[in-house]
Design the sequence.
Protein backbone atom coordinates (compact mmCIF):
# COMPACT_ATOMS: atom_id res chain seq x y z
CA UNK A 1 0.00 0.00 0.00
CA UNK A 2 1.35 3.43 -0.91
CA UNK A 3 1.93 5.53 2.22
CA UNK A 4 -0.23 8.62 2.36
CA UNK A 5 1.34 10.18 5.47
CA UNK A 6 4.99 10.85 6.41
CA UNK A 7 4.60 8.93 9.67
CA UNK A 8 3.55 5.85 7.72
CA UNK A 9 6.75 6.07 5.69
CA UNK A 10 8.93 6.28 8.81
CA UNK A 11 7.19 3.29 10.40
CA UNK A 12 7.44 1.19 7.27
CA UNK A 13 10.98 2.03 6.18
CA UNK A 14 12.68 2.37 9.57
CA UNK A 15 10.57 0.05 11.69
CA UNK A 16 10.10 2.59 14.47
CA UNK A 17 7.05 4.22 15.98
CA UNK A 18 6.59 7.96 15.90
CA UNK A 19 5.73 10.38 18.67
CA UNK A 20 4.65 13.28 16.47
CA UNK A 21 4.59 14.81 13.02
CA UNK A 22 4.21 18.38 11.79
CA UNK A 23 4.34 20.02 8.35
CA UNK A 24 7.35 22.16 7.47
CA UNK A 25 6.27 23.25 4.00
CA UNK A 26 4.51 21.80 1.00
CA UNK A 27 5.64 18.18 0.64
CA UNK A 28 7.96 18.42 3.66
CA UNK A 29 7.24 17.21 7.21
CA UNK A 30 9.16 16.84 10.46
CA UNK A 31 8.60 13.46 12.08
CA UNK A 32 9.59 12.76 15.68
CA UNK A 33 10.60 9.11 15.96
CA UNK A 34 10.21 7.17 19.20
CA UNK A 35 13.95 6.38 19.15
CA UNK A 36 14.73 10.10 19.44
CA UNK A 37 15.55 10.85 15.84
CA UNK A 38 14.06 13.94 14.22
CA UNK A 39 13.41 13.03 10.60
CA UNK A 40 12.53 15.18 7.61
CA UNK A 41 10.12 13.32 5.33
CA UNK A 42 10.07 14.72 1.81
CA UNK A 43 7.71 13.81 -1.02
CA UNK A 44 9.43 13.12 -4.32
CA UNK A 45 9.02 15.47 -7.27
CA UNK A 46 8.40 12.55 -9.63
CA UNK A 47 9.60 9.13 -10.74
CA UNK A 48 13.17 8.51 -9.63
CA UNK A 49 13.50 11.84 -7.79
CA UNK A 50 14.03 10.34 -4.34
CA UNK A 51 16.56 7.79 -5.56
CA UNK A 52 18.46 10.52 -7.40
CA UNK A 53 18.53 12.83 -4.39
CA UNK A 54 19.57 10.06 -2.01
CA UNK A 55 22.40 8.95 -4.30
CA UNK A 56 23.50 12.55 -4.77
CA UNK A 57 23.63 13.29 -1.05
CA UNK A 58 25.64 10.15 -0.36
CA UNK A 59 28.09 10.89 -3.20
CA UNK A 60 28.59 14.49 -2.11
CA UNK A 61 28.90 13.62 1.56
CA UNK A 62 31.10 10.55 1.17
CA UNK A 63 34.49 12.33 1.19
CA UNK A 64 33.55 14.59 4.11
CA UNK A 65 34.56 17.87 2.47
CA UNK A 66 31.10 19.43 2.98
CA UNK A 67 28.48 17.93 5.29
CA UNK A 68 25.24 16.45 3.97
CA UNK A 69 22.29 15.11 5.97
CA UNK A 70 22.16 11.38 6.63
CA UNK A 71 19.78 9.54 4.35
CA UNK A 72 17.65 7.23 6.50
CA UNK A 73 15.69 5.69 3.63
CA UNK A 74 13.76 6.34 0.46
CA UNK A 75 11.17 4.86 -1.85
CA UNK A 76 9.21 6.21 -4.77
CA UNK A 77 7.01 8.34 -2.50
CA UNK A 78 9.19 9.50 0.38
CA UNK A 79 12.78 10.46 1.16
CA UNK A 80 13.73 10.35 4.86
CA UNK A 81 16.57 12.62 5.97
CA UNK A 82 18.33 13.75 9.12
CA UNK A 83 16.82 16.97 10.45
CA UNK A 84 19.25 19.89 10.73
CA UNK A 85 18.58 22.83 13.03
CA UNK A 86 19.19 26.27 11.58
CA UNK A 87 22.02 28.59 12.57
CA UNK A 88 22.98 32.15 11.68
CA UNK A 89 25.53 32.61 8.90
CA UNK A 90 29.03 33.52 10.05
CA UNK A 91 32.32 34.22 8.33
CA UNK A 92 34.17 31.16 9.62
CA UNK A 93 31.43 28.83 8.39
CA UNK A 94 31.35 30.61 5.03
CA UNK A 95 35.09 30.24 4.54
CA UNK A 96 35.04 26.62 5.67
CA UNK A 97 32.30 25.95 3.14
CA UNK A 98 34.24 27.62 0.33
CA UNK A 99 37.31 25.54 1.10
CA UNK A 100 35.26 22.37 1.43
CA UNK A 101 33.43 22.94 -1.84
CA UNK A 102 36.74 23.36 -3.66
CA UNK A 103 37.92 20.05 -2.23
CA UNK A 104 34.65 18.34 -3.11
CA UNK A 105 34.82 19.48 -6.72
CA UNK A 106 38.37 18.22 -7.02
CA UNK A 107 37.28 14.73 -5.92
CA UNK A 108 36.12 14.47 -9.51
CA UNK A 109 33.60 12.37 -11.40
CA UNK A 110 33.91 9.57 -13.95
CA UNK A 111 32.71 11.77 -16.84
CA UNK A 112 30.79 14.90 -17.68
CA UNK A 113 27.15 14.03 -17.12
CA UNK A 114 27.90 10.98 -14.95
CA UNK A 115 25.22 10.23 -12.37
CA UNK A 116 26.27 9.56 -8.76
CA UNK A 117 26.90 5.88 -8.01
CA UNK A 118 23.52 4.17 -7.80
CA UNK A 119 21.74 7.25 -9.11
CA UNK A 120 19.41 7.10 -12.11
CA UNK A 121 20.07 8.57 -15.53
CA UNK A 122 16.63 10.19 -15.37
CA UNK A 123 17.07 12.56 -12.43
CA UNK A 124 15.64 15.95 -11.46
CA UNK A 125 16.62 19.54 -10.78
CA UNK A 126 13.94 20.87 -8.46
CA UNK A 127 10.63 20.10 -10.17
CA UNK A 128 12.15 19.65 -13.64
CA UNK A 129 13.37 16.37 -15.14
CA UNK A 130 17.12 16.26 -15.82
CA UNK A 131 18.99 13.54 -17.68
CA UNK A 132 22.51 12.48 -16.71
CA UNK A 133 24.08 11.27 -19.95
CA UNK A 134 27.84 11.24 -20.34
CA UNK A 135 29.85 13.07 -22.98
CA UNK A 136 33.57 13.23 -23.66
CA UNK A 137 33.86 16.97 -23.12
CA UNK A 138 32.01 19.63 -21.18
CA UNK A 139 30.85 21.83 -24.10
CA UNK A 140 29.17 18.84 -25.77
CA UNK A 141 27.55 17.79 -22.49
CA UNK A 142 26.34 21.28 -21.54
CA UNK A 143 24.98 22.10 -24.98
CA UNK A 144 23.29 18.75 -25.60
CA UNK A 145 21.91 17.91 -22.16
CA UNK A 146 21.70 21.19 -20.24
CA UNK A 147 20.85 23.92 -22.75
CA UNK A 148 19.07 22.45 -25.75
CA UNK A 149 16.31 20.35 -24.06
CA UNK A 150 15.13 23.28 -21.94
CA UNK A 151 15.55 25.76 -24.76
CA UNK A 152 13.24 23.63 -26.92
CA UNK A 153 10.70 23.30 -24.13
CA UNK A 154 10.69 27.03 -23.36
CA UNK A 155 10.39 27.95 -27.04
CA UNK A 156 7.64 25.40 -27.70
CA UNK A 157 5.66 26.61 -24.67
CA UNK A 158 5.95 30.22 -25.79
CA UNK A 159 8.02 31.26 -22.76
CA UNK A 160 10.79 32.37 -25.13
CA UNK A 161 10.25 34.15 -28.44
CA UNK A 162 12.02 32.98 -31.57
CA UNK A 163 14.35 35.97 -31.31
CA UNK A 164 15.21 35.22 -27.69
CA UNK A 165 15.76 31.55 -28.45
CA UNK A 166 18.12 32.49 -31.28
CA UNK A 167 20.43 34.30 -28.85
CA UNK A 168 20.64 31.21 -26.66
CA UNK A 169 21.25 29.02 -29.70
CA UNK A 170 24.28 31.16 -30.51
CA UNK A 171 25.71 30.24 -27.12
CA UNK A 172 24.98 26.55 -27.58
CA UNK A 173 26.52 26.51 -31.06
CA UNK A 174 29.61 28.39 -29.91
CA UNK A 175 30.29 26.68 -26.60
CA UNK A 176 33.72 25.41 -27.58
CA UNK A 177 34.86 29.02 -27.96
CA UNK A 178 33.10 30.25 -24.81
CA UNK A 179 33.78 27.52 -22.25
CA UNK A 180 37.33 28.50 -21.32
CA UNK A 181 40.21 26.07 -20.76
CA UNK A 182 39.48 22.35 -20.53
CA UNK A 183 38.97 20.99 -17.02
CA UNK A 184 38.40 17.47 -15.68
CA UNK A 185 34.87 16.59 -14.52
CA UNK A 186 34.05 17.92 -11.05
CA UNK A 187 31.89 16.26 -8.41
CA UNK A 188 29.05 18.78 -8.70
CA UNK A 189 26.07 19.60 -6.47
CA UNK A 190 24.27 20.85 -9.56
CA UNK A 191 21.63 23.08 -7.89
CA UNK A 192 23.66 25.04 -5.35
CA UNK A 193 21.44 28.07 -4.98
CA UNK A 194 21.13 29.70 -1.57
CA UNK A 195 18.03 27.68 -0.60
CA UNK A 196 20.03 24.46 -0.87
CA UNK A 197 22.89 25.73 1.33
CA UNK A 198 21.74 25.17 4.90
CA UNK A 199 23.49 27.00 7.73
CA UNK A 200 23.44 24.71 10.75
CA UNK A 201 25.59 23.27 13.51
CA UNK A 202 28.87 22.31 11.92
CA UNK A 203 28.74 24.87 9.13
CA UNK A 204 27.03 24.94 5.75
CA UNK A 205 25.31 21.72 4.71
CA UNK A 206 24.38 20.74 1.15
CA UNK A 207 20.74 19.87 0.50
CA UNK A 208 18.58 18.85 -2.47
CA UNK A 209 21.30 18.20 -5.04
CA UNK A 210 21.01 17.62 -8.77
CA UNK A 211 24.40 15.93 -8.54
CA UNK A 212 26.43 14.87 -11.57
CA UNK A 213 29.85 15.17 -13.13
CA UNK A 214 30.11 18.73 -14.40
CA UNK A 215 32.13 21.93 -14.50
CA UNK A 216 33.01 23.43 -11.12
CA UNK A 217 32.25 26.95 -12.38
CA UNK A 218 28.59 25.84 -12.65
CA UNK A 219 28.24 25.44 -8.88
CA UNK A 220 29.95 28.79 -8.26
CA UNK A 221 27.64 30.50 -10.76
CA UNK A 222 24.60 28.91 -9.15
CA UNK A 223 25.61 30.17 -5.72
CA UNK A 224 25.77 33.68 -7.18
CA UNK A 225 22.47 33.46 -9.08
CA UNK A 226 20.05 34.38 -6.31
CA UNK A 227 22.61 35.59 -3.80
CA UNK A 228 23.93 33.93 -0.65
CA UNK A 229 25.02 35.19 2.76
CA UNK A 230 28.71 36.09 2.92
CA UNK A 231 29.08 35.23 -0.75
CA UNK A 232 32.46 36.85 -1.31
CA UNK A 233 33.92 35.06 1.72
CA UNK A 234 32.75 31.76 0.22
CA UNK A 235 34.20 32.53 -3.21
CA UNK A 236 37.49 33.92 -1.90
CA UNK A 237 38.07 30.87 0.31
CA UNK A 238 37.17 28.61 -2.60
CA UNK A 239 39.66 30.31 -4.93
CA UNK A 240 42.42 30.17 -2.30
CA UNK A 241 41.83 26.47 -1.60
CA UNK A 242 41.71 25.57 -5.29
CA UNK A 243 44.98 27.40 -5.89
CA UNK A 244 46.61 25.75 -2.87
CA UNK A 245 45.56 22.35 -4.28
CA UNK A 246 47.30 23.13 -7.57
CA UNK A 247 44.03 23.61 -9.49
CA UNK A 248 43.38 27.36 -9.56
CA UNK A 249 40.24 28.65 -11.20
CA UNK A 250 40.91 29.47 -14.84
CA UNK A 251 41.41 33.08 -15.87
CA UNK A 252 38.14 34.74 -16.77
CA UNK A 253 35.93 32.50 -14.65
CA UNK A 254 33.94 35.47 -13.39
CA UNK A 255 33.26 36.49 -17.00
CA UNK A 256 31.71 33.05 -17.63
CA UNK A 257 29.14 33.28 -14.82
CA UNK A 258 26.37 34.08 -17.32
CA UNK A 259 27.20 30.98 -19.35
CA UNK A 260 26.92 28.70 -16.34
CA UNK A 261 23.76 30.40 -15.10
CA UNK A 262 22.08 29.74 -18.43
CA UNK A 263 21.01 26.21 -17.47
CA UNK A 264 19.24 27.03 -14.17
CA UNK A 265 17.64 30.10 -15.74
CA UNK A 266 16.29 28.00 -18.61
CA UNK A 267 14.91 25.54 -16.05
CA UNK A 268 13.15 28.42 -14.28
CA UNK A 269 11.79 29.67 -17.58
CA UNK A 270 10.36 26.22 -18.33
CA UNK A 271 8.88 25.79 -14.84
CA UNK A 272 7.64 29.29 -14.14
CA UNK A 273 7.17 30.94 -17.50
CA UNK A 274 8.38 33.91 -19.42
CA UNK A 275 9.08 36.05 -16.37
CA UNK A 276 12.59 34.56 -16.41
CA UNK A 277 13.03 34.99 -20.15
CA UNK A 278 14.74 38.38 -20.01
CA UNK A 279 17.20 37.20 -17.34
CA UNK A 280 17.94 34.08 -19.37
CA UNK A 281 18.64 36.07 -22.52
CA UNK A 282 20.80 38.50 -20.52
CA UNK A 283 22.87 35.54 -19.30
CA UNK A 284 23.25 34.33 -22.88
CA UNK A 285 24.36 37.78 -24.04
CA UNK A 286 26.87 37.90 -21.18
CA UNK A 287 28.30 34.57 -22.35
CA UNK A 288 28.61 35.83 -25.90
CA UNK A 289 30.25 39.02 -24.68
CA UNK A 290 32.79 36.97 -22.70
CA UNK A 291 33.73 35.13 -25.89
CA UNK A 292 34.38 38.44 -27.63
CA UNK A 293 36.92 39.57 -25.01
Sequence:
Amino acid sequence: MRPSEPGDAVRRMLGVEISGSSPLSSGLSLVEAADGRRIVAKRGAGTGANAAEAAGLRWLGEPGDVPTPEVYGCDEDWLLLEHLPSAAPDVDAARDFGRGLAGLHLRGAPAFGAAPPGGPVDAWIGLAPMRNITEDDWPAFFATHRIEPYLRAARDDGALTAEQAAVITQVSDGLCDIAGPDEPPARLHGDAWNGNLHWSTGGVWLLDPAAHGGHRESDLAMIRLFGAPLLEHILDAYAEAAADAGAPLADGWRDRVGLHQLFPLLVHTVLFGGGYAAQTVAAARSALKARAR
